[in-house]
Specification:
This protein has helices spanning 15-27, 43-52, 71-78, 95-102, 118-130, 134-159, and strands spanning 5-9, 32-36, 60-66, 83-88, 111-112. The protein is α/β, with parallel strands linked by helices. Helix 1 links the parallel strand 1 (5-9) and strand 2.
């Protein structure tokens, strides 16, 4: 099995956030890999990862980082693959990490999700893959329908709650 998505985090302390992406990819039966690489502490390893990811079969990279959050941008600068950034809330309520990812220079985009939004990063990665994979697209359609069904059911349950002045 060859990984199609790579989940990278700046430190293993980011795992509690980033595992939401792993769980979703696993649920969708998409092979993935997970690694901790630091743009600041292991720059040579980050360069090797980024420049060889496509050769290894990676199609989308999800990169989570907190604080200065250079990891997604550094990776995006060295690969033609789409990079999805996950700002990790570790300081300044995660705004420093979010801004570092959002304010990339022209030509080096990092698609950025919400602070600690690893699940949405995985969903976006699957949607990217699904543009060329009909089976995966059907899984995404089913997943989105399950979200709708959950809200419809919750609304039905709300209708049964009684209050004296609820009409």
């Amino acid at each position: 099995m060859v990984a199609r998505v790579s989940i990278i985090m700046g430190s293993t302390s980011d795992l509690p956030v980033m595992e939401a992406a792993a769980k979703f990819l696993n649920q969708m039966e998409i092979p993935f890999e997970m690694n901790a690489l630091s743009a600041h502490r292991t720059p040579k390893e980050v360069e090797e990862f980024a420049t060889k990811a496509e050769q290894r079969g990676i199609e989308v990279i999800i990169a989570g980082a907190g604080m200065a959050a250079h990891l997604p941008g550094v990776i995006a600068a060295m690969t033609p693959l789409p990079v999805i950034g996950v700002p990790i809330k570790s300081s300044l309520e995660g705004m420093d990490a979010a801004l570092a990812m959002l304010q990339m220079p022209p030509g080096i985009p990092v698609a950025t999700v919400a602070i600690n939004g690893a699940l949405n990063a995985a969903i976006l990665a699957v949607q990217i893959l699904a543009t060329a994979d009909k089976e995966l697209r059907q899984k995404m359609i089913a997943y989105k329908k399950s979200l709708k069904d959950k809200i419809v059911k919750a609304n039905e349950e709300l209708s049964t709650i009684k209050y004296d002045y609820k009409v």
